[in-house]
């Protein structure tokens, strides 16, 4: 697999109020279609960085189609220009390359990074096989409630533990925290950061509980905390807010942040009863056995708290977000309805409410588990993102991107430290 990022200058254009900001750099990637999953990961990481991507898929007749399908599975929208059409467009463009691409062997690290995985459910079960197959990482333990239970992702002998303390006692370099319980997840994150262990988390309730305090704890322990998968699944929502903040003061965030409610609302729009829509969401793997956090807006509020911190660099308490419940007796507005999270600096509104979005192209046609985000800055720049907000493939891909970024940061820090012969402290996000 060869990925050659070639950043090109983005188009220069004046930005007027309410006009989406499009001055994005471009990455040209030459990809080996023999492994569409790894090729899709390379594209996804560039998308997270706010780049438009031209992906040259090499390796045969179906290389373009295979890459497009792999990207769709994680929620990255693509275009495939016809002959004679412009190659450079918005988002991700896939074009066919030569039959073969010169291979590039990934160098094996001097020492594999020791990784502890907390949780082997929807997300953890998607990450574990990739960890086991990648020479850069050594899995030292997997935290589960019942090590004897059969799973769709088998855990190799000797790795399963049921005690969080026993997991950390295996001295990992990195903890991937992907458990569903907020209090256990938060305690495990705190314990790891205190020990100087880097953390990648997909747990929005744990991360959103008090993100500023966790970042301070990471800095004190010279560790890093990465949490992109906690909001938006495979949609690059946190990165979009960060990019907006880099260009100006954020004054408004509007987002669909809960795939379960979006799935249900789409079924209600089709005329199906609430109970049937909820069962369909469970059958599709988007709704938990107890969906109360989704339906009451608590899940979206925790995610809005994280986005609010990214935008304003302060603490936004999830329990301070006004919430509206979606239930069988809910009276919905006329038209296409979304569970819309909103933070408006100018009006002071911080809410999760059921709102009509007719006429809004970002939200009106949002499919099932997809999430979407619009960020507006004080000078009128508008940044948007869409993607699959739930499910194993997109969320595990976001965790993997964080892990890959972290591995590169650690490698760079080690090289810098060796060059200066001084310890290199890792910065917090």
UniProtKB/TrEMBL annotation:
E.C. designation(s): 1.1.1.3
PROSITE patterns for the chain: HOMOSER_DHGENASE
Record bears the keyword Nucleus: no
Keywords per UniProt: Amino-acid biosynthesis, Methionine biosynthesis, Oxidoreductase, Threonine biosynthesis
InterPro entries: Asp/hSer_DH_NAD-bd, HDH_cat, HDH_CS, NAD(P)-bd_dom_sf
Keyword Ion transport assigned: no
Ranges that cross the membrane: none
Domain annotation Aspartate/homoserine dehydrogenase NAD-binding: ranges: 119-227
Official protein name in the record: Homoserine dehydrogenase
Domain (Homoserine dehydrogenase catalytic): residue spans on this chain: 238-403
Pfam families with a match to the protein in the record: Homoserine_dh, NAD_binding_3
Source species: Brevundimonas denitrificans
Lineage: Bacteria, Pseudomonadati, Pseudomonadota, Alphaproteobacteria, Caulobacterales
Family per similarity comment: Belongs to the homoserine dehydrogenase family.
Class of this enzyme: oxidoreductase
Annotated pathway: Amino-acid biosynthesis; L-methionine biosynthesis via de novo pathway; L-homoserine from L-aspartate: step 3/3; Amino-acid biosynthesis; L-threonine biosynthesis; L-threonine from L-aspartate: step 3/5
């Amino acid at each position: 697999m060869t990925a050659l990022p070639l950043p090109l200058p983005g188009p220069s254009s004046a930005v007027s109020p309410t006009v989406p900001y499009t001055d994005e750099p471009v990455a040209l990637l030459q990809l080996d279609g023999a492994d569409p999953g790894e090729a899709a990961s390379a594209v996804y990481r560039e998308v997270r960085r706010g780049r438009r991507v031209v992906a040259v898929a090499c390796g045969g007749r179906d290389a373009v189609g295979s890459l497009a399908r792999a990207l769709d599975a994680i929620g990255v929208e693509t275009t495939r220009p016809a002959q004679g059409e412009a190659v450079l467009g918005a988002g991700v463009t896939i074009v066919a390359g030569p039959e073969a691409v010169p291979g590039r062997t990934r160098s094996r690290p001097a020492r594999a990074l020791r990784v502890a995985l907390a949780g082997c459910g929807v997300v953890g079960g998607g990450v574990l096989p990739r960890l086991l197959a990648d020479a850069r990482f050594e899995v030292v333990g997997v935290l589960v409630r019942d090590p004897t239970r059969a799973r769709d992702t088998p855990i190799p002998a000797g790795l399963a533990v049921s005690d969080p303390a026993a997991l950390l006692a295996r001295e990992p370099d990195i903890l991937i925290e992907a458990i569903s319980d907020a209090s256990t997840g938060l305690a495990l994150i705190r314990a790891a950061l205190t020990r100087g262990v880097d953390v990648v988390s997909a747990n929005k309730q744990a991360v959103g509980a008090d993100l500023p305090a966790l970042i301070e704890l990471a800095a004190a322990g010279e560790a890093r905390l990465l949490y992109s998968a906690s909001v938006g699944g495979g949609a690059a929502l946190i990165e979009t807010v960060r990019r907006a903040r880099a260009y100006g003061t954020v004054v408004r965030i509007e987002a669909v942040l809960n795939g379960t409610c979006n799935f249900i609302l789409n079924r209600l729009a089709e005329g199906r009863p609430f109970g049937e829509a909820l069962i369909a969401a469970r059958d599709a793997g988007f709704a938990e056995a107890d969906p109360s956090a989704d339906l009451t807006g608590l899940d979206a509020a925790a995610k809005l708290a994280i986005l609010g911190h990214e935008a304003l660099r302060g603490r936004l308490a999830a329990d301070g977000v006004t919430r509206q419940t979606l239930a069988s007796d809910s009276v919905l507005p006329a038209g296409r309805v979304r569970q819309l999270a909103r933070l408006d600096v100018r009006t002071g509104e911080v809410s999760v409410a059921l709102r009509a979005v007719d006429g809004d192209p970002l939200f009106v046609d949002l499919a099932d588990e997809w999430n979407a985000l619009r960020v507006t800055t004080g000078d009128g720049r508008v940044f948007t993102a869409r993607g699959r907000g739930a499910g194993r493939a997109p969320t595990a891909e976001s965790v993997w991107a964080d892990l890959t970024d972290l591995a590169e940061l650690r490698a760079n820090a080690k090289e810098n430290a060796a060059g200066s012969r001084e310890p290199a402290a890792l910065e917090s996000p």
